[in-house]
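Q: What would this complex look like in 3D?
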Amino acid sequence: VTISRQSYRPYPFEVTAVHLDFDLDPASTLVTSRLSLHRKEANAPLVLDGEELDLVSIKVDGQLLDASRYEVGEHGLTIHGLGQTVELEIANRCSPQANSTLMGLYVSNGVFFTQCEAEGFRRITYFPDRPDVMSRFTVTLRAAKAEFPVLLSNGNLIGQTDLPDGRHEAQWEDPFMKPCYLFALVAGKLTWRESRVNTQSGREVLLQVYSDPGNENKTQFALESLERALRWDETRFSLELDLDRFMIVAARDFNMGAMENKGLNVFNAAYVLADPDSATDANYGAIEAVIGHEYFHNWTGNRVTCRDWFQLSLKEGLTVFRDQEFTADMMATGLDETAAASARTVKRIDDVVTLRAAQFPEDAGPMAHPIRPESYQEIGNFYTATVYEKGSEVIRMQQTLLGPDGFNEGLAEYFRRHDGQAVTCDDFVAAMESVYQKTHPGRDLSVFRHWYSQAGTPRVKVDMRYDDATRRCTLRLTQSCAPVGVERLAGIAVKPPLHIPFSMGLLDADGKALPLKLAGSDAAASDSCLLELTTETAEWVFEDIPSRPVPSLLRDFSAPVIVEYDFSDAELALLMAHDTNAFARWEAGQQLATRQILAATDAVRGGQPASLSDSFVEAWRSVLTATDLDAAYRARALALPAEKTLAERMTEVDPIALATARDHLRAELGRRLAADWQAAVDANQTPGEYSPDPIAAGKRAMKNLALAFLLAGGAPQAEAQVSEQYASSKNMTDRMAALSALVNFGPREAANTALADFFERYQSDPLSVDKWFTLQATSRHTDVETVNGLMVHPAFTLRNPNRARSLVFQFCLNNPYGFHRPDGSGYRYWAEQVLALDRLNPEISARLARAMDRWIRYVPALSAQMKQALEDVRNHPGLSRNVTEIVSKALEIS
Ligand code: ARG
Ligand code: ZN
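A: Here is my prediction, written as C-alpha cells for the whole assembly.
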C-alpha cells in the first residue's frame, strides 16, 4: 500500500498523558499502558497501532472491556463507543529477546534498548504511533537488579526502589510533551562517565555517556563532544538545554547512526567509543558530528517536531545543516583567519563529496524523491541521502539567501511560532520568509518552495559572452530538471523553475580575480557575486572586464545542482592553480581528473593503453608541492573523484573498466610524482602523542594519501615504509591507512601477514574487527568465494548490523572488481543476502537492496543479470514491505 502526503487527517483523540509500566524480561515483557484520552471528533472509533504484540487486557475507566467493544488485528486495535474523556489501560506482552528487527524493544549484548522512530513504538504497545500525537510521559521500569542494575528512560529520575524478589524499579518523568517516537528505555549492566556543566542561564545539568562495562576508557571524547555541542548551540543559535539531565547510551546492535530520544539518546557504539589505538581520525570526526546531530535534535526535532513523516526533512535536513555547521566551526576553532577559512572549505568539500556520491545517484534513480516525499510504502526506506543531505543543502540555501543573521532571526521566529508543536516544512519556510520579506521587500520564497516538491538534480547551463568593444561580459544561466523515476511514472513532463543561489567570480588570463561590477547595480565591486536564478533562464552583465575572463562557477557549492560549462583543460588548470575560492579550486582539479579517468576508461574498454596528459600530471604536482596550502586541503585536492560520482557521468557504466582506469591513474600519478609524494610523506609526520585535532588529522590524511600513491606507483621504498608504519604506529589512523595500502596496492603476501596480525591484535574489539572485515570486503582480490569464506568466520554474524555492513554491504557497494564479475556471481550473492537479512531485519535488508538502484545504467551484459537478481528477490514469497518497495521500484523503471 502506498501512503500519500495528501491523505493527512488529524487524529480524532488527544492523548494528554501516558503512563507506561514495564516488567522487563527478555523472553516476555509485560507492558501496561495507561492513556488519558480526550475525544476531539464525535463518533470516531479509537484506532491504535500495534504490531507483534500479545494483548492481555483492556480496561476503560477501571472496568474490563467487553470483547464486543474492540477488534484486534495484525496491525492494531480498534475500540468503539468511548466517551468524551476516558482512562484507558491496556496490558500486552512483547518478546525483546526474539526481536531481531532492532525496532521496538530489543536486547543487545544483554541490555534492553528501544528504537521507536519512525514506527517502532507500535511494537511495544498499542498506541497512536504518529508524530502529531503528543503527550506527557511517565515511565516505571521493573527488572531483576543483578542483571539490570541500570534503568533509564526519558527526562528526570523521580524515584528508585528495591523490590522483594531481587527486582528493583525506577520511575522517570519527562516534563515535555512528546510524540511516542521519542520514547526510550535502556536497562542493563552499564558503566558510565559523567560531568556537570552550567548552561548559559546558569542551570546545572548532568551529562552522562553509558557503555558496556570495560569501555569506560573509550567515552571521554564523546562526553567532551557533547559539552562542545551544548556550548555551540548556545552561542550560535541561543538554544539552551531544557533538561536537568542528558544521557547518551552506546548500543552494539543498532540499525542507524543514533537516535535523539528526549534526554536519552541511543547511539550505535561506532559513534561513541574511541581511543587512539582503535579509532581513526574519521571515527573521531564522525563521533563529534553524530553527537552534535542528536543533541541539536533536542530543539530541531523534539521541541518542534514533524506533523507527519512526509515532513521528515523538517527535522533531518535542518539538523544535518546544524551538525555540518558545528563541525565546520569546531574545525576552524583556534585558527587564524586564512587557516580557518581553509578548514571550513575542507568540511564543505567532504560534505559535497558525500552528496555527489550518495545523493545525486539516488536522485537520478528509481528511489528519487523530493526532500519532502509525496508518497511512500515504508517510511523506514525514506531515511535517505535526499531527506538528510539534500535537505541540508535546501536549508543552507535559505541561509545563503537570508544571510547568517537573517537565518538566525528566521530560526528564532520558527521557535516563537511553533515551540511545542508538530509542524510541516511549509511552516519552516514561512517563518524564514517572514524575515526574508523584511530585507527583500516585494519578494518571497514561493519559487524557492519548489525545492520541497521536486525530485532530481537540477542542471544549470552557463553561457558566457565577452564583447571586446564594450568590455562587457554576459553570463546567461539556464536551469532544467528532467523528470525522474516516480515523476516520470506519474506523467510529470514539465517542472517549474527553482530559486537557485549561484555564487561565481571571474578570473583574468593570469588567474587574477577580477572585481565584479554588475551593470545597473550600484553595489561596490567585489570578488564574488551571488546570482539569484528564479526563472528558467536569466542574464547578468559585468562591466569593465579587460579581456575574456575564465568563470569560477558555483563557488562553495551554493546550490545542489550540476553545472554545465565548456571549460578547456587549460582553463580548469588555471582555476585549479589560482582561484581565490578554495572550493572552486578543488572543483576544477576534480573536473580535470574526471576527464582523465573517463578518457582512460574508454581506452580500457577499447583495449587501448590508457595514458594521462602531461599537463594533468603537472597540475597535480603543483598542488602537491604548494606548501602554502594546508595538508588537509591538499589531501582533498589530490584525491581522485569517487567511482560512484564518476559512474554518473558515463552513458553506460562499465564498472571494472572504470575501476581499472582509476587505479591506473593512481599508479601513474604515483610513479611520475614519486619524489614529490615522498617529500609529502616526510613533511607530514605527526610525532608525539596522538590527537584527533584537524591539523594533525590533515597531516595524517596527506601523508597516508601520499603513501598510497607511492605504493600504487611501485616506488621501491614504499612497501617497507608502509609495513613499518603498520607495525610501529601508535594510532589506528596510521595503522589502518598502512594496512589498507598494503591490502589494496601491496604484495599479497605482505597484506595477508598484516591482516592476520591485525585480527590477532584487535579481535576483542568489535569496531576494529568491523574494519578488518571491511578491508577484505573491498579488496580487489576478493570475490564471492572469498566473501563466503569470511561469512563463516567465527567473528561474523548477520544479526549485528555493523558487522553485516562491514562485510556484505561493503562488498556489494564498494568492491567493483569482485561484485561486478561478468559471471553474475556478485549479483546472485546480493540476492541471497537480501533474502537472508530480510528474515532478520527488513530495514537493514532494504538498505542492501538499494545496491541495485542503478542497474539499468550498466553495460547490457551486467544489467541483464542484475535485473534477473532483482526479479528473483521480488518473486520470493514473504518478502517484507521494506524490500518489496525497493526492488519493485527498481524494476518499474525498466
Ligand atoms: N532520527 C534519527 C537521526 O537521524 C534516525 C533514526 C531513524 N531510525 C530508523 N530506524 N529508521 O538522528
Ligand atoms: Zn537526525
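A: To summarize the key features: The radius of gyration is 28 Å. Residues 115, 117-118, 255-256, 258-260, 293-294, 316, 380, 383, 843 surround arginine (ligand 1) (CB under 6 Å).
Q: Very helpful, thank you.
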